[in-house]
Each structure stands twice: as structure tokens, then as C-alpha cells.
Write a structure and sequence with these properties.
Elements lengths: L1 H9 L7 E2 L4 H10 L6 E2 L9 H19 L4 E4 L3 H12 L4 E4 L14 H11 L2 E4 L2 H11 L4 E3 L3 H10 L12 E5 L8 H14 L5 E5 L4 H11 L5 E4 L4 H10 L2 E4 L2 H9 L4 E3 L7 H5 L3 E3 L4 H12 L1 H7 L11 H13 L1
Parallel strand pairs: 1-2, 3-4, 4-5, 5-6, 7-8, 7-10, 8-9, 10-11, 11-12
Helix pairs in contact: 1-15, 3-4, 4-5, 7-11, 8-9, 8-13
Length: 342
């Protein structure tokens, strides 16, 4: 959202950046990387807080802010509980909503959970739907008719390309490095145990190193450290700040992840991605051949990683692709907002 905030300011729009505190530490370092700060911090997150508790807190805390500011438009990004709560609060206040990253669909409300349900609900509320791809726009057209659907690309690619262009080339690791992230709620329990076993098998090759920045969610940290801490060939770290994460992607051979964002960002940097899920809301990335959905079966994780260690297979799949934008999504969104507001 920060590239969009900058584009709005440059275009002369007054705006206010509001956060709920969801993923506070991760959000703070992104703001720092872009030299920005929120105008409002509702500070609603609590340790161990369930999504429904956060949602109820947002619906209680945001209406007074909206009453004070009376914005002409509320912009929300993605599929977080924060996006859903903000959209609902704006809807009840009679304020139009613009949804950035609209139209992504896995077509299974339980995967990812609760993100798929969140984004479907936000799209139902939104007056402006900023779709990152033509396929996302087609999803919206099937559900709501043509309406105000604008294919813009994703502002996440705006941010990625701007930041990557400002960073030096990272040093090459001693061994081929595999960047790993996994944090989805649908993988809690048995899913994480299967993922960990697959990662142990990959590390046991002895000719690679795995770098795993671990998500701050206590349920994730506990499971990951219990299963993988001290294992040869696997390095667990705290979450990386935004520039460091970009450098980690640039330095790695490929990515193993259940993240939605990395399915967009890593391919733009020419890095193949193995997705630790059964379905994805980003089929455009899969269609390029750079991204492959592999699930959580340990044998499949081991086999797919081995394929990407083959020089011929790697050469065919390690290429930059840009299904989610060219770095100009923010400019297109600003133009659409200007037309909408008159």
C-alpha cells in the first residue's frame, strides 16, 4: 500500500494511513524501509488473539476515526482480517471502499483460512475493485458483473521493483540456498509436521542450505523450532525486514513457501517457487511454469526440490515473469480513483 500512498500524495490527494497493529513488527520495518509512518495506529493486536477477536476490535475502534475524518473513499489491501474489518466499518458508515488486490480466488473458503473468505467479503462490499490480473477481473465479473473493475497489477510489485532497484547485488552463498517460509493456519498441526519432514529430507542432501525466517505467530514459531532447530543445513532466523527479504530472494536458488505474496514477488526476480498448499489463488503464476503447487507431502517436497537442483530443469524455470504487474499499479489506481471521485 505504501507505493500507492506515495502516488496519491504526488497526485494531490489528502490521505491518512491507518494500521490496526496486525503484524506490527513486520509492518514497522516496511514503513521504515520506505521512510514512512502510519498516521493512525489503533494498536488493537494482543498476544494469541484470534482473528474474530481482532475483527470485533476493529469494528469497535474504527468508526470514531471515520466519523472524525469523513473520507470520500476507504482503501484496503489484500485479504487480512484488518482489510475485512476496515471494509465493513466503512460500509456501515456509508463510505465507498476500494479494494486493492481484488478478485483473487482459490475457490475454497477454507484454503487459505480465513483469507479466502475475507477477500470474497471485501469484494462484495467494494465500490472499486482493483484487480491485479485479467483472470482476477474475470472472477469479479462472474460474481458481480462488470461494475467498477479495473485491471491494475499489484502494488506489491510496485514496491518490490522500486526497492530491488535501490539495493546492491547480494553476495552468492557458499552452497545453493533455498529460501523457506510457511505460516498458513490451514497447515497448523499435521501440516507443519509434514512440511518439517520434507524440509529435513531436502537438507539431508548435504549440497544445499535452507534459510527459514520464521513467522512471529507463536503457533508457527513453536512448531518450527521444535521440528527444525539445530538440524544440519537448516538456519532458522527471526523475520527479515523488507530489504533483507528481497536480498534473500535474490540470493537464493529457489523458494519453498505457502505465502501468497512470495508467489508474486519471487517470480518477478526470476526465482522458481514451490507452493506448500493444495490450491492457490494465483493461477497466473502457475501458468508461467515458474511456480508449482506441491502440497505438504514430504516425499513430494523432496522430489520437487531435487528437480530444481537439476541444471536443465532449473534453467527452464528460473526466469523473471510478471503476471502481477509492471510496477505501475499505483498510477493506474490513482487514475481510477480520480475518475470515480470526479
Amino acid at each position: 500500500m505504501l507505493p500507492l500512498a506515495g502516488a496519491l500524495k504526488q497526485a494531490g490527494f489528502r490521505h491518512s494511513l491507518c494500521t490496526t497493529g496486525q503484524h506490527r513488527d513486520m509492518l514497522a520495518q516496511v514503513f521504515a524501509a520506505f521512510g514512512a509512518a502510519p498516521d493512525r495506529d489503533l494498536a488493537l493486536m494482543r498476544p494469541g488473539q484470534a482473528p474474530v477477536a481482532l475483527l470485533s476490535s476493529i469494528l469497535a475502534a474504527l468508526p470514531p476515526v471515520l466519523e472524525e475524518l469523513r473520507p470520500d473513499l476507504m482503501l484496503v489491501h489484500g485479504d487480512t482480517t484488518t482489510a475485512l474489518g476496515a471494509a465493513l466499518a466503512a460500509f456501515h458508515a456509508g463510505i465507498p471502499v476500494g479494494h486493492v488486490e481484488a478478485g483473487l480466488r482459490s475457490h475454497d473458503l477454507t484454503r487459505p483460512f480465513p483469507e479466502e473468505a475475507n477477500r470474497v467479503a471485501v469484494d462484495a462490499i467494494a465500490a472499486l475493485r482493483f484487480a491485479p490480473t485479467a483472470e482476477a477481473a474475470a472472477n469479479l465479473a462472474r460474481e458481480y458483473g462488470a461494475g467498477r473493475v479495473i485491471v491494475t497489477g499489484n502494488t506489491a510489485i510496485d514496491a518490490l521493483l522500486a526497492m530491488a532497484g535501490s539495493l546492491p547485488q547480494p553476495p552468492a552463498p557458499a552452497l545453493p540456498r533455498i529460501l523457506v517460509t510457511a505460516h498458513r493456519r490451514e497447515s497448523f498441526g499435521e501440516g507443519f509436521r509434514r512440511i518439517a519432514e520434507g524440509l529435513r529430507r531436502v537438507a539431508a542432501r548435504g549440497d544445499v542450505e535452507l534459510l527459514y525466517p520464521v513467522h512471529p505467530n507463536p503457533a508457527v514459531r513453536g512448531a518450527v523450532h521444535e521440528a527444525l532447530s539445530g538440524r544440519p543445513g537448516i538456519t532458522l532466523t527471526d523475520p527479515l525486514d523488507y530489504p533483507a527479504m528481497i536480498q534473500a530472494m535474490r540470493a537464493c536458488r529457489f523458494v519453498i513457501t505457502d505465502s501468497g505474496g512470495l508467489q508474486e514477488e519471487a517470480p518477478a526476480l526470476g526465482k522458481p517457487v514451490l507452493v506448500l498448499r493444495e490450491v492457490t489463488e494465483r493461477p497466473e503464476a502457475v501458468a508461467t511454469g515458474v511456480v508449482r503447487v506441491i502440497g505438504t507431502d514430504p516425499a513430494r517436497i523432496e522430489a520437487e526440490a531435487a528437480l530444481l537442483m537439476d541444471p536443465g530443469e532449473y534453467a527452464a524455470r528460473a526466469r523473471p515473469v510478471f503476471p502481477y504487474g509492471d510496477g505501475r499499479a499505483s498510477a493506474r489506481i490513482v487514475a481510477a480513483i480520480r475518475e470515480f471521485l470526479g
